[in-house]
Specification:
It is a single chain. The protein has 2 helices and 17 strands. The chain is mainly beta. The protein has a domain of 87 residues. Strands 8, 9, 10, 11, 12, 13, 14 and 15 form an 8-stranded mixed β-sheet that branches. A hairpin with a 4-residue loop joins strand 3 and strand 4.
Length: 277
Amino acid sequence: MVTIPDAIATGTTGATNGLMTAADKQKLNGIASGAEVNQNAFSNVKVGSTTVAADTKTDTLELVAGGATIITPDATNDKITISSTDQSVTAVGNHYTPATDSSAEKDASGGTATQLPTSSTGALVQVVTGVQMDAKGHVTGVVSKGLWSPNSTYSNESLGNGYGTCATAEATAAKTATLSNYALVKNGYVSIKFTYGLCANATLNINSKGAKSIFIDGAAVTATTAKRVLAGDIATFVYDGTQYQFVCTDHHERKFDINYRASDNALVFTKKFGMAS
């Protein structure tokens, strides 16, 4: 007679020896030959706020190339390469690309002279011959513009700084001028081209808005300070609410000519000195 120890006669608990139960045998039958311990894997892939979840234990995640993307699979070496179709992107720093020309424009810092438009009316760099100003003297728009003419000289007068014209005789103190769309407002700037020079105690009346004293260096015009504005000068003033305060003239402070030289496509600036004595 064979006696089975009690520890073996009862089912095993996992901590002690014993007989295998039917449930244990069923679990063992579910293990494939050569099976290994499970390893960690992702069941979800999150892209931004969207989560792509696996629908089955052996679901397949597909990678689809976008418009400018190339996806190259390498099944032999178990790798996937993602690249872009636009791999050669160049840009010119600190410059612009014109609306109608086919190449990027450059200035001296970019290595070449700026291409000036002589035939393309849609080009960005054109000659502005007149501007529109608001009541405070701020430029609000372009009245007229044109193309550069080869080997032509442009003065800052012809480039249109929004000035009026005064043709009052030099000896007449009451100067009058006209300027389209001008409004007399405090702190407003205005430029006037004088056919003749100033005289002592000169006043200025623009568009019949009222005669206002012209002040140079904070005082009424004297015979000496009148020489600051000579015949043909464009003088700029700011209205302080009482007088026209003199700011500067083209004659000796910012007079220059611009020449477009077609031979090398360059702009030549010529400063004109000659202060009134």
